[in-house]
Amino acid sequence: MEFWLGLYGMQSPRVHPRAWSGLYNEVVEHAEFAESVGFDSFWLTEHHFWYDGYCPDLYPVLATIARRTSKIGIGTGASLLGLHDPLREAQQIATLDVISNGRVILGLAPGYRPEEFEGFDIEKKVRGKRFYEGAEVMKKAFSGDRFSHHGEFFRYDDVCLEPAPLQRPHPPMWVGANRSHQQARNIGRAGLGFWEGPSMSIETFAENVEVFKQAGRDAGHAEEDLKVGLFRDICIADTAEEALQIMDEDLLPMYEEQYVAYGYVPEATGNRREMLAHPVFKEIIDASMVGTPAQIIRKIERYRNRVPFDHFMPRIMHMSQKKERLFRQMELFAREVVPYFK
Amino acid sequence: MRTGLYFGWEGTAGNDAQALLGQVLDQVELGDHLGFDTCLFAEPQFEHGRMSVSVPEIIGAVAGTTHGIRLGSANRVIALQHPARVVENYAVLDQLTNGRIVCGVGVGQHESSFAAYDTPFDERFARFEEALDFMRQAWSYDAIAFNGEFTKFPRSAARLEQAFESEPYTKPYLLPWQRVGKPVNHLAITPRPLQLPYPPIWVDVTDPVTTTTAVQRGCAILPPAILSHDAVIDRYQRFGAALADAGRSAEEFERPLVRNVFVAASREAAISLAGEAFQALFRDHTAQGEFADPCSLEYLTEHHLILGDPDDVFDQLKTLQQKAGVNHVLCRMAPPGIAHLDVLASMRLFAGEVITRLRS
Question: Measured between CB atoms, does B61 come within 8 Å of chain A?
C-alpha cells in the first residue's frame, strides 16, 4: 500500500491566520520532512477566489518541492481541470514532470464551488462533460504526438506538446470522487484512478468502489488500471486523550470554518455546538480517524477488509500550522502505521 | 547598472528536455550565488523550433534554492490565458519567492501560438491591453467586477454599464458563509502578491507600438534580445518622449534590456566559443520571420552581440548604457550550442570582472 500525505492549500484561515509567504516557505520544509520519514508522496490542494488565499496554482509550488527533495512523489489533490484550459494545464504538468524526474501524480476534479465557475465564466452544469473532455485532451497532449481535437468545449488544431512528460504514456491520473454513483461510473468509464473524499461512510465508499470497478470493466479497462485510493482526516498521538485534544484544537475548528464556508451546511448560523450536531458534520467527523497508532491501524484495516484499496491518504494538515505537532504526527504515522501495511 | 540573465529557448526543440532544463536550473542557481540581480525566461507557446517550456515551474523550481535573484517571465503572452489565471500565477510565484517576481508580459508575435489556443491573432493588441488592465485592477482593489470586451469577471459583470467596478462598501460585512447562495457580483483574487500593490510589470517592446501601451499604464519596457543596439536606443527614446508628454520621466523607471553577451579570456576565445551558436540563433530568428538583417559574424558583432574579454564587454555595455539610458542589462549567455561548462565560465568571468565595475 502507498501512503500519500496531504493536503496543503497554503491557507490563512480566520482560526489560524498566517502570512502567506511564511506558508509557502514552510510547505517545502513539510515536504522535506515527509520525504525523510518515508511517505510515498506529498499533496497540495487547489481552490480559487477564496478569502483565506487557498492556493490557486499548484504546479509552481510542487516545482519548488521537487527541487528540494529527491524521491517523494508530488501530487495535486485536486487540480480543478473543469475550470481550466487542458492544453495549458498539460504544458505546466509536463515541465513539472521533467524537472521532478517523473514524480508527478495527477489528481483531478471538476470543481464544484459556484464562485469558481462564475469567476472563470463557465457554465457549472456542464462541468462533468467539460472535465472528461479536458482529461481526454490532456492525454492526447501528454503523448507528445501532434494532435488535433474538435470537441464540444475545446478545439485544437495540429499542436504538439514539447517537452512531453517524462512518465510514459503520462503521469498517473486520479479523479476525486464525491458521493454520487454517477461520478463513480464516469471515473470507471474513463479508466482513471478513483480517489474517495474524506467524508463518506464505509458503506458509501464500498458501494461507490463497486460501481466504479463495474463501469471500468464494462468499458474494457484492465483491472490494474482501476486503482482505488482512500482519503481520511487523521489525528494521531501516543495516547487517545492527546489525539482527541488535537481533534478538538485543530480538526474541528477547520471543519467549522471551512465546511460551513464551502456551503456544505447552508443553514449554518456560526454557532459551534449547533454546527457539530448537524448531520453533515456528524458524517464527516465519524469518517475521520482519531487515536493512537494501534487504533488508526484498526480503522484502516476495517476499511480494507470491506473494500480492497492500495492508496491511502492521511490528511494530517488541518491548517493549524503547528509545525512541531504536525511533524510529530507525521513521524508517528510513518513509523508506526505505515510499516504495518507495507 | 544592474545585471541579469535571460533564457529564450530558441532552437531547443528536439533536445533532451531533462538535460536542458537541468542545466538551466544549475545556471540560475549559480547566477544567484554570483550576484546576478535578475533572471527572466521567455515563454514560447507552440512556436516553431522552440520547446513550449512552462516557465512558472522553472521559476518555482529555483524559488527554494536561490535567495536574492529576482525571477520572472520575459514576454508572457497574457492574451492566451484567462487573465485571472495570470494574476493567480504571478501572485503565487511572488509569495513563493518572497517577493522576487517580475511580470514580463508581451503581445505575442507568433500566429502559431494563437492558433494553438484557438484565439484570433488579429485581436492580440486589444486582448493584451485588456489583460494588462485586468492585472492592474485585480491587484489594486479588493473584490472587483471587470466588464471587458473579452473577459467578464465574474460572469455577472456583463450587467455593468461601465468597464470596471470595485465592490462597494456595505454594512454589515458578510462573512464567507453568509454569502453562500447569494449572487456573485464581485470577486477577490487571492493570495495577493507579496510586493504591494503588485510586482513590477515590464512590457516587451518587440513591436514599437507597445511602448505607448506601457507608458499609458505606468509600466517599464523590456527591449528583447532580437533588437539591434540602435533599435533599443530608439525604443528608449520613444519611451522617454511619451513619458515627457505625460509630465513624467524615464528616471522614475527601471530601464532594462536584453543583450547577447559572452565573456572569455580574450575576444578571439569568446568568438570561437560562442560566435557560431549566436549566429545559429539569429538564423533561427530569420527562419521564423522575426529577423531580416544579415547573419554574418561581422554584422552581428557590430549590431547585436557583445562578445569579448571582460574589458571589451564592460566598454560595450557602458557605451550602450550611455546611449540608451538603460540601467539593467539581462544577458542571454546560453543559446544552444555553447557547452554548459563554457556558459558557467562566462558567467563567472562576467560576475567577477564586469558586474562590480558596472555597479560602481
Answer: yes
Q: Is A158 left (phi over 0), alpha (psi -120 to 50) or beta?
A: left
Q: Which of B28, B52, B139 to mutate to test the interface with A (most CBs of A within 10 A)?
A: B52
Closest to A133 (Cα-Cα) out of A196, A84, A185: A84
Which residues in chain A land under pLDDT 70? Answer: 261-272
Residue B9: Cβ within 10 Å count: 22
Return the C-alpha cell found at A126: 456542464
DSSP characters for B199-265? --EEEE-SSTHHHHHHHHTT-EEE--TTS-HHHHHHHHHHHHHHHHHTT--GGGS--EEEEEEEE-S
For chain B (length 360 residues), average pLDDT per consecutive 10? 96 95 98 98 95 98 98 97 98 98 97 96 98 97 96 96 90 71 90 97 96 96 96 96 94 97 98 96 90 94 97 97 96 95 98 93
Map out the domains of chain A with their CATH numbers. 2-242+288-341 (3.20.20.30)
The pLDDT score that the predictor gives to residue B141 is 94
User: For residue A95, which residues of chain B lie inside 8 Å, CB to CB?
Assistant: 21, 53-54, 57-58
Question: CB-based contact (8 Å) between B325 and chain A?
Answer: no
Cβ neighbours of residue B81 closer than 8 Å, sequence gap 6 or more: A85, A88, B131
CA–CA min distance A295, chain B (Å): 35
pLDDT tens digits for A255-267? Answer: 878 777 666 665 6
CA distance B141 to chain A (A): 14
Residue A338 gets the label, from left (phi > 0), alpha (psi -120 to 50) or beta, of alpha
Contact B21 A99 (CB under 8 A): yes
Does B92 contact A at CB distance below 8 Å?
A: yes
pLDDT at A264: 65
Q: Report helix, strand or coil for A41.
A: strand
What is the full DSSP assignment across A150-190? Answer: E-SS-EEEEE--SSPPSSSS-S-EEEEE-S-HHHHHHHHHH
Question: By three-state DSSP, how is residue A249 classified?
Answer: helix
Asked if A214 and A186 count as a contact pair (C-beta separation under 8 A), the reply is no
pLDDT computed for residue B176 by the predictor: 67
User: Scanning the structure block, which residue is given the C-alpha cell 514539447?
Assistant: A162
Residues contacting residue B53 through CB under 8 Å, at least 6 positions apart:
A95, A163, B9, B12, B17, B21, B41, B43, B44
List, for residues A85-108, the tens digit of each pLDDT value.
999 999 999 999 999 999 999 999
Supply B134's cell numbers. Answer: 485586468
What is the CATH code of the structural domain delimited by B2-117+197-359?
3.20.20.30
Q: How many Å apart are CA A27 and CA A9, to the nearest integer?
A: 9
Partners of residue B9 in chain A, C-beta under 8 Å:
none
The CA-based dihedral angle spanning residues A59, A65, A71, A76, taken in that order and rounded to the nearest 10 degrees:
-30
Which of A46, A47, A61, A255 to substitute to test the interface with B, most B CBs within 10 Å? Answer: A61
Closest CA to A61 of A46, A40, A41, A81: A46
Other residues' Cβ atoms within 10 Å of the Cβ of residue B296: 11
Residues 300-319 of B with CB under 8 A from A: none
Cβ distance of A161 and B52 shorter than 8 Å? yes
Does ipTM surpass 0.95 in this model? Answer: yes
Contact at CB, B58 and A63, closer than 8 angstroms: yes
Q: Chain A contact for B88, CB < 8 A?
A: yes
Q: How many angstroms separate the CA atoms of A17 and A34, rounded?
A: 23
Q: Give the best residue of B95, B117, B194 to mutate against chain A (max A CB count within 10 A).
A: B95
User: How many Å lie between the alpha carbon of B329 and the closest alpha carbon of chain A?
Assistant: 26
